[in-house]
Design goal:
By secondary structure, the chain is α/β, with parallel strands linked by helices. It has eight helices and 17 strands. Strand 5 and strand 6 form a beta hairpin. 47% of the residues are buried. Ribulose-5-phosphate binds next to helix 2 and helix 5.
Amino acid sequence: MAGELSPIDKAKFAAARRAVDFVESGMRVGLGTGSTAAWMVRCLGELVREQGLSVTGVATSARTAALAREVGIRVVELDEAKWLDITIDGADEFDADMALIKGGGGALLREKIVATASDRMVVITDAAKEVAALGAFPLPVEVIPFGWRTTKALLEETLVSLDVMGREVSLRMDGQAPFRTDEGNLILDLALRRITNPRQVALVLNQIPGVVENGLFIDICDTVVIGEADGTVELRDAASGRVERERIDFAESDNLFRDLAR
Ligand code: 5RP
């Protein structure tokens, strides 16, 4: 069944499948958003349904909450869970320091709140998202709708003083209308091309009134799991610097693929 997936989906699936092994019964789990995170939610659902794993999920978006419930995961609000054992989420880019750009799916605000409220954040990804310097992926910045054009102008002015290679700012659209986050906010995408000092950029952007949060995740990710299409996974641990390689057996997940094909 896994043979019917594209190489990129196989890579995402391999990372997701390995990451759910970190989840133990009784854990409160932050559920990320995006296509890689959706694989993780399906894998976790399979463990809940078929192995009786007992977990409580906190979703980082309405669409993840819907998927999680569909696959049998109990979902509660963050304030009910209060603190999480682990969050597993995707990323748009990651660098050697495990700094991330997130928010390609527009869920960066809830993703950052949930990841920060977790003992451990595990990022699941394919190798193509590793970069020498962050910034090729446009940096999403969530802003409130009130006065957003003024906020955009302030952002553009602020970028002049920052060591970045590009400074184009655009409003994210959803067809003909501006994209709205789950909080009803807007996203400005910053085409910075290369961010020399992500920590400084993250701090400076959040000083601008109207900016709710930016998609730079610094010192939040603890582990990166990088999947490859042949089932190989590489695990990198931020604290120890340890790197391990393993192989996922796709045949073990045939049930999951059968469910998806229905
Ligand atoms: C959503 C995110 C996602 O994690 C990021 O966009 C990666 O998505 P995908 O796994 O589909 O490539 O930050 O806001």
